[in-house]
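Rotation project, supervised by the postdoc (A.L.). Task for the rotation student: set up a whole-complex structure prediction and record inputs and outputs verbatim in this book. Inputs entered:
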Amino acid sequence: MTQAEIKLCSLLLQEHFGEIVEKIGTYLIRTGTQPLRMIISDTGLLLDQVKKALCVLIQHNLVTYQLQKRGFVEYEAQCKRVLRILRYPRYIYTAKTLYNDTGELIVEELLLNGKMTMSAVVRKVADRLTETMEDGKTMDYADVSNTFVRLADTHFVQRCPLVPETPESPDAPPPPAPTLVINEKDMYVVPRLNLVGKGKRRRSCDEEENGEHKAKKQKQDGESSEPPPDDGIYWQVNIDRFHQHFRDQGIVSAVANRMDQIFRSLPAGYNIVKQVLDQYLTLLADDPLEFVGKSGDSGGGMYTVNLHKALASLATATLESIVEERFGSRCARIFRLLLRKKHLEQKQVEDFAMIPAKEAKDMLYKMLSENFVSLQEIPKTPDHAPSRTFYLYTVNVLSSARMLLHRCYKSVANLMERRQYETKENKRLLEKSQRVEAILASMQATGAEDAQLQEIEEMITAPERQQLETLKRNVNKIDASENQVDETIFVLESFIESTVKKP
Amino acid sequence: MAEVKVKPEVPDPMDIETRIIELCHQFPHGITDQVIQNDMPHMEAQQRAMAINRLLSMGQLDLLRSNAGLLYRIKESQNASKMKGSDNQEKLVYQIIEDAGNKGSIWSRDIRYKSNLPLTEINKILKNLESKKLIKAVKSVAASKKKVYMLYNLQPDRSVTGGAWYSDQDFESEFVEVLNQQCFKFLQSKAEAARESKQNPMIQRNSSFASSHEVWKYICELGISKVELSMEDIETILNTLIYDGKVEMTIIAAKEGTVGSVDGQMKLYRAVSPLIQPTGLVRTPCGLCPVFDDCHEGGEISPSNCIYMTEWLEF
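Outputs recorded:
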């Protein structure tokens, strides 16, 4: 794992789970697989803390454990999985577009809690939705269950691996760590639950902000103390399925951009006459982009989507866009030229790109220093004398993609640090505003007069209010840009993964 | 009978030379020593050699080497008259320049190699020849300090002057830019027109294509170019548009004889919109930061005090 990735992982863990978890997580990422003893001794934390932290990490699928042959258990951190935390907002947004608010909340709950049983999810989501609805209306459990079932059917959520059913053998001691198995077929099977009920609205009162109080309230509300019927069947979010969806979206939008005139005239809905459909398919197949290929004539024509080519084109387009924004459109011209012609001499670059020699040289050297292009030497004589060697410029897409991916990780880490810095700078102000709001809320509840309320409000002066506004705006901006960089990360990662041969 | 002494006829030296020249005219490709000997068997080797040497020094004969031996060839008469005033070395240099057949020009260092004359001599001779208006110096676009020489009446080659894009050794970048934009506008408007027509997609796509011939005609009619441009010139401009990512090209097979086809193929160009929007990384200051590698927490340059970020946040 590169330095940048480790830094980013530690920042993410710290922001979402706190110092202790961050310490242990970073330690595991840095040193690889470790048994419990080593973790305790190297991090210097208490056994209790380490245990709890590991529990949290395992619950969220960030750390896996394995039973070694010698009989002890080793823990390993999944660095890639930690980086996915950055993408949570995108998952939630996708669920919202596909399955409305219900879906959005289900996915959000699952992501926040790592693994949950279906009944727990349904209950929580129904409660949350009921709050946002108007007075008197409540959310039915059945609706939420339906959405959950639909999510499982389209494989967006999946079952977690379970402890296998082993016959009880009192002689053999239980293994120190259970091995979890899951049957492929069972992964998306929704248990038959009879969830009847409606969401409960929380009564608005002071202890709302405190989550613990809410839990107590729920218990007091007469929830049955028996374990729910689907105890032991936990569900988690299927991240790979979301990635597939993002990838498809990316390809579709790229094709739409390229064929814009045709897409505009496409009638809404799928009622296209066969003739027109044929024409569109032929057009897609003939396009120089080569995303769609025709692989035969059976059944009137077999068409396939060339995923590898599509990912490569998207990654190349990303590279080109980065070069264009950083160095200018003339450099982008040279870059695209080198991509097409693979290897070119200095003189040929000038001729093809129609750029004066001095400028072309300058741009090539600048790109060379940033490692976007590289030189290939072809000697004419065995002694490799520079005056008698051909020097060819070339672009290596895979290595450029890796370099840019590394840069993306560092950029996100920088953005997060800046955000934390901004928040820290204004901590005093934030605390003050929070106190004022708390006072206001309590006074409103006890029915204070307007004059008193105004007096409290004026405790925050106008410039301070301005500052708060600016802070909020900045934090939002940085947050949004973190998500944008994550989109680039996704494209580059998918491309690099697709080039690695699976054994 | 009285003994008549036959005096060996001493052939007149002038006669020998004229005879040799006649022989050379007979065999324009050149004659060997053997041929001369056969023709005038009574001539002695020494006299032959003298005659040949005289002809060579007068510049009427060329001395060449072949597998069979030495060849003597008649030289062009007009050159012979020109050369009257010059000496051997100058003639040699002139010959070398003339022989640089294909490119029509030759570098001064190459002249030196071929003639084995020292540098100072070469320079003097070249100046002499230039003043006599037999050769001229042309500056090359590739290396502006390099001087190439060619015969006075020849036109410099395209590779030396650079063709239509160069005027007086300067690359005309504004000219190229203007042409670039004009071609792109033409293709864009064609694509727009095709879009508006709203016919079925096949026809729409095909009508948004323009062949290189069409673009060439359009540019010629616009008349923005002082120099006449060929279709290949326009194709190089269109290629730069492809490298800009604004245009795509396909090649179709065309019947021989249709307007604009080259070797049974025609190149069609179409304006396209970019594949993706500018990517996320470049929307943040870090993506474009010049000191990215020096930036780390706690250092002089760090995210907390990054001036680019501060400016960007105030935007």
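Student's summary: The longest strand of chain B covers residues 247-253.
Supervisor addendum: Chain B touches chain A through 51 residues (CB under 8 Å).
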